[in-house]
Amino acid sequence: MRKNAGPAVSVKNLRKSYGSLAAVADVSFEVEPGEVFALLGPNGAGKTTTIEILEGFRSRDAGVVEVLGVDPDNRRTQRWLRSQMGIVLQELAVEPFLSVRQVLTRSAGFYPDPRPVDEVLGMMGLADKAGARVKTLSGGQQRRLDVGLGIIGQPELLFLDEPTTGLDPSGRRATWELIRQLGGEGTTVLLTSHYMDEVEALAGRVVVLAGGQIVASGTPDSIGGRDTGVATIRFRLPDGVSAADLPVAGQPAQDGEIEIRTEDEVAVLHTLTGWALGRHVGLPGLTVRRVTLEDVYLQLTRDPDETGRTRQEQLR
């Protein structure tokens, strides 16, 4: 159990440098118990360094860090802390000649209250591979085994680094459901992923790192002003109707569609649909799209442009 009733993870003014390079510069965030939290950033953003500090595998230069109520850099509590954590790295690191069951059984012995091995095999869809050697597993099966190793200790806090890399669509969705299940059971999940649809489907909150600093934080729906920015309405013109006939001005787009960009899509849609109903015509292919999470992420993590605008300014 956690050493206090506060956040599962608390990071305040974290700093870490390697020589003259500031890998992490004044980073602060909190992760609540039972939350699925995404820490995002491109290579070199400081994400890996931050996670390694949280896991207790790297020391910080400055700042206050608490994980499950203890300092992960405190050697007196490190053994206890690691018994409460599950860690899923990007690559499987187990002996290839052991069987799946042997690998899981050995890992279960490291924890005070592990899940039953057969339960984990079932959860990961590996029951029929229990006796198979690790080296005979497909890439997707190895990835599922890696996640199984992360959850077998029934961790209070689970670190998931790109958990669905190498999985087919069915395997990805099954892993998503597992993560949701763990969150529902009270497990805190700190997730990294380059799949923005995955982040949007799973995370309650997101922090984006770039250049060792937090450039945005919030819910996937609101980060970077997604919920208040410009919306794009697209549709094809009905037969016998020209763009000049529309009640709202639009511009030609790809595939013969009309595009309307607006910050008040409700009013524009009301006008358009009322006009279409009044003329007994349709609006084929009608879609409404705000900027995607991937669009926001790419803008936030892009270097400032030649005019020197900040990443936040580029989103406006």
Layout: helices, strands, pairs:
Blueprint (H helix, E strand, L loop, with lengths): L8 E10 L2 E11 L4 E5 L6 H9 L6 E6 L7 H9 L1 E4 L11 H9 L8 H7 L15 H13 L5 E5 L7 H16 L3 E5 L3 H7 L2 E6 L2 E6 L12 E6 L14 E2 L4 E6 L2 H15 L7 E4 L2 H9 L9 H4 L2
Parallel strand pairs: 3-7, 3-8, 5-6, 6-7
Antiparallel strand pairs: 1-2, 1-4, 8-9, 10-12, 10-13, 11-12
Helical stretch count? 10
Unreliably modeled segments: 306-316
The Cα radius of gyration reads 24 Å
CATH superfamily of the largest domain: P-loop containing nucleotide triphosphate hydrolases
What CATH first level of the largest domain would be assigned?
Alpha Beta
Q: What sequence of helices (H) and strands (E) makes up the elements? A: EEEHEHEHHHEHEHEEEEEHEHH
